[in-house]
Write a structure and sequence with these properties.
The structure holds two protein chains of two kinds. By secondary structure, chain A is α+β, with helices and mostly antiparallel strands. In chain A, a hairpin with a 2-residue loop joins strand 1 and strand 2. Chain A is globular. The mean pLDDT of chain A is 85. By secondary structure, chain B is mainly α. The N terminus of chain B is likely disordered. Chain B has a domain of 284 residues: Cytochrome c oxidase-like, subunit I domain (Cytochrome C Oxidase, Chain A). Classes of the chains: A alpha+beta, B mainly alpha. Chains A and B meet through helix 1, helix 2 and strand 4 of A and helix 7 of B.
Chain lengths: 85, 416
């Protein structure tokens, strides 16, 4: 596995933000799962995506995470990911 | 700054009924393929063209299963890969309603040598393929991402035009006999169908699908371009080499095809090396098996061209290429992609995305995997040894496996 995932990421108020805009498939999925699979990452996580990543939802479900689209900038689809209790 | 909720890929997600009608048909034609092979078992080992059960079996597989799977996958995945929606969805429905009955009528014509059925089926099938090619070309023309996948799509589209033109010539030649060398034209038609259309499309889609399913990094495009360049040179050489029966040029074309396959397999190796998913599951056992068959079939093809003493080598080459590589690969992809796409169209009672494991029925897939491998081995042994009972046993076991695969497809579709 790569040491550094593609895309940008930062923490704001303790919440991890992952920006995968500008990445071609399958890099966004790789980047997001890279962060979610890090030990200690319990969410919520906010994802900044260029479009709604429908192909990513089954992978999230397999890992016990839910997704919801929230308001974002005009050029993005913003998702909040939460671990399913 | 304005805050809003955008959509995107969901707009490019087609109604489930569209891709799944292609996948369901591919599963049914898969059963018919082994049935046709069983019916024509006597003729398989020494097959060298002509109408009958074997020609029908080849077209049931190539049109009914390969092209049908490719169309369903392309209509759904290409808009995601190119970030461009289909201009209209009705041509995709039209493609199906031309192509599916056309394939049935055409292959019926091949078993009965009915010129009427061959003509109607040939025209309908060609019209379906051309509609697909036009729809794909329109999407590729607007592509804004993944140029490597789009370029493979262009080579596949050009190959469709060549193979359709040759197919119609071959059908009308059966009655009118105007082609100077019918078998050479048929071989060229098969090369553009198996390598140009299906092979190149399989390579191109692999660069998205395999990393997506294995959870790998995007593949560095360099070797992908090398593979595509060799594939394009191979096809360019193959046309005059096969039509004019120039053996050294055929060898050169096949060497380029081997180089294209080697570069492609190198890319797949890279995907596996960088993958995040450690347990790839049974679908990848099937897919890896198909890659082995790709290499073996091309090497056997080269050995045959160099006059190696392989009994019925040309038939063995064709069988391993079509049933060993392409059929196995597409069935591996289908068993992975069907539950995956289904999960995007259904939700659990509490509105969540269902687990892929709830949309998969592994027992029939296991039966299929074992049956398919056994069937390939027995049929290949039967071709080389010219022992028909081996081919009959292989085709019967393949038929059992294909019915099991059909049960899996039915299980997924019932969940929609």
């Amino acid at each position: 596995m790569a040491e550094e995932p593609p895309g940008k990421y930062w923490r704001e108020d303790g919440i991890l933000h992952i920006d995968v805009r500008g990445l071609g498939p399958p890099e966004p999925m790789f980047a997001i799962l890279f962060h979610l699979e890090k030990p200690g990452e319990v969410g919520p996580v906010i994802v900044h995506h260029l479009c709604e990543p429908v192909y990513f939802y089954p992978e999230l479900a397999e890992r016990g995470w839910s997704h919801k689209i929230i308001a974002g900038e005009p050029d993005e689809v913003r998702l909040i990911l939460r671990q399913i209790p | 700054m304005s805050m809003l909720i955008m959509s995107g890929a969901k707009d490019r997600l087609l109604p489930a009924s569209l891709p799944f009608r292609f996948f369901a048909s591919a599963s049914v034609f898969h059963i018919l393929f082994w049935l046709a092979l069983l019916m024509g078992a006597d003729d398989l080992a020494t097959f060298n063209g002509g109408t009958g059960w074997i020609l029908a079996a080849i077209h049931i597989a190539t049109l009914g299963t390969f092209a049908m799977t490719a169309m369903g996958a392309a209509f759904q995945l290409l808009p995601i890969a190119t970030r461009q929606p289909l201009a209209h969805s009705w041509p995709a429905y039209l493609t199906f309603w031309l192509f599916m009955p056309g394939t049935l009528i055409l292959t019926y014509g091949m078993t009965t040598t009915s010129m009427l059925a061959l003509t109607i089926g040939g025209i309908a099938t060609s019209a379906g393929l051309l509609t697909f090619a036009l729809l794909t070309a329109d999407n590729l023309r607007r592509a804004t991402s993944l140029p490597i996948v789009a370029s493979h799509g262009w080579v596949a589209v050009i190959s469709v035009l060549v193979l359709v033109a040759l197919a119609l010539l071959l059908i009308f030649d059966l009655d009118a006999g105007f082609l100077p060398n019918h078998i050479a034209a048929a071989t060229t038609h098969m090369a553009f169908a198996a390598f140009g259309f299906m092979g190149v499309l399989a390579f191109g889609f692999s660069y998205v699908l395999i990393p997506m399913f294995a959870l790998s990094r995007a593949l560095p495009p360099r070797m992908g371009w090398v593979s595509l360049a060799f594939a394009a040179i191979a096809l360019t050489l193959a046309a005059p080499a096969l039509l004019l029966e120039i053996t050294p040029l055929q060898v050169a074309a096949l060497l380029c095809a081997i180089a294209a396959a080697a570069a492609y397999l190198w890319q797949m190796r890279t995907a596996f090396k960088t993958r995040m998913r450690k347990r790839l599951g049974p679908a990848f056992v099937v897919i890896r098996g198909s890659w082995g068959m790709l290499a073996i079939s091309l090497l056997i093809g080269l050995a045959v061209l160099l006059d190696a003493p392989i009994p019925n080598g040309a038939t063995l080459f064709g069988f391993l290429l079509l049933a060993g590589w392409l059929l196995t690969f597409l069935l591996g992809i289908l068993q992975r992609i069907m539950p995956f796409l289904a999960s995007m169209h259904v939700s659990t009672k509490d509105g969540r995305t269902p687990l892929l494991s709830d949309l998969t029925s592994q027992t029939p897939l296991n039966i299929h995997m074992i049956s398919h491998a056994t069937a390939l081995a027995l049929c290949a042994a039967g071709i080389v040894s010219e022992i028909t009972p081996l081919i009959i046993a292989g085709a019967a076991i393949g038929l059992v496996g294909s019915i099991a695969f059909g049960l899996f497809a039915g299980f997924v579709i019932r969940k929609l």
